[in-house]
Write a structure and sequence with these properties.
- By secondary structure, this protein is mainly beta.
- The chain has two helices and 18 strands.
- The chain has one domain: Beta Barrel (Porin), CATH 2.40.160.
- The radius of gyration is 24 Å and the shape is elongated.
- The chain starts with 8 loop residues before the first helix and ends in a 5-residue tail after the last strand.
Amino acid sequence: MIDIRNAGQLLIVFLLLGGSLLPLSLSAQSQSGGSTYSIFNIGDLQSSITAAGAGRAGVETAIAYSDLLNSVNPAAWTTLNYVTIQAGLRFEQYRVSDADQSIWQNRTAFQNITVGIPFSEKLGGAIGLGIRPYTTVNYRTGHPREVPSGDTTVTADITYSGSGGVSQGFIGASINPFDKVALGATLDLYFGSSDHRSIVDFPGSTLNDAGYVNTDSWSGIGGTIGLFITPTKNVTIGATFTPGFTLTDKRESLSIFREGGIDDTVSVTESESELLIPGRISFGVSLKSGRTLLSGDLIMQAWGGHDQLSETRNRLRAGIGLDYLPARGPIASGFSKWTWRTGLWYERTYYALSQGDIDEMGLAFGAHIPFSATGRLGSGAGADIGVELGTRGTIDNGLTRELFGKFSLELSINEFWFSR
């Protein structure tokens, strides 16, 4: 066999660097994975964290819950009536297509766990803490390529795969300093890691398989400030601001080769850098009429012109949601006690590739299913489900189009521990 650490090293470097210009080509029919575009930048930025928010297209900035912790606006925690524990999962199915073929990819992942504790009715005081994703990296793609080897050519299968992302741990509080005005803030701890693997496989050849593995370990500290205003009983206005913060990236880069199916490390290098994450602003409004709640959100984040990332543009996400609220009173029963949700969204993603910019749009629907009502003598529980159906990207200019469906399930427990 030819030792890749000697004669084959330049060939591997050429294949991986040249192949990286076409990272979205397809070569399989079904596999585990998520969005192919998460290969770029720091991965997919998350919008719909809770299943309740996912059911109305990610709209939450001006939504008041009495038994759920708002995942966007900490100022909205002042409406929390009960000690609340939430935990959620998400299943995602993607159909990724280029000009020639399509593949199916799917993933199931833990989404979030949060705890909310109201402590003062007079101050509207509540404490919230939890863990949720900030970005996700989950892709698997590749393409075959004919390369010279002596007097002939051999087939090289180049595979790109990645997993992980940046998580966000938060702790914060909300208060009502003035009538009809609530403020909230969180301290956010960012952590996590993402792996990116580039592997060259030579099926039917004496050449050793080889590749590179980059592991990024992320850490950083930030925060969010929220505002919640109720000028009238049926109108709510919300806003949040997340200042820019710095993510520290400790990268370990491995050069590997395979012989007999076993990975062997050729070289290891370590580096450390800092990545500036731009500030984010969200605005929202909700209008209630009877059992109908109409809401809208606008999210902006200035990624354009980033000094360290060349494939970004300013992000803009707009969504509109509709809730049909449950009936109240002793005669309410069955489906009339459920909350029904739907929504639409459009996102100008922060992906600005050389072949074209990537936009996303979709439709969402969901429901809140109460298992039991919370009272002063016991606890209640319920489940929220959210379904998102959408599309992003295009098959033009060598890019890929993604059709996706996401199913979110979140369980919540509410308890009356004490009178605020």
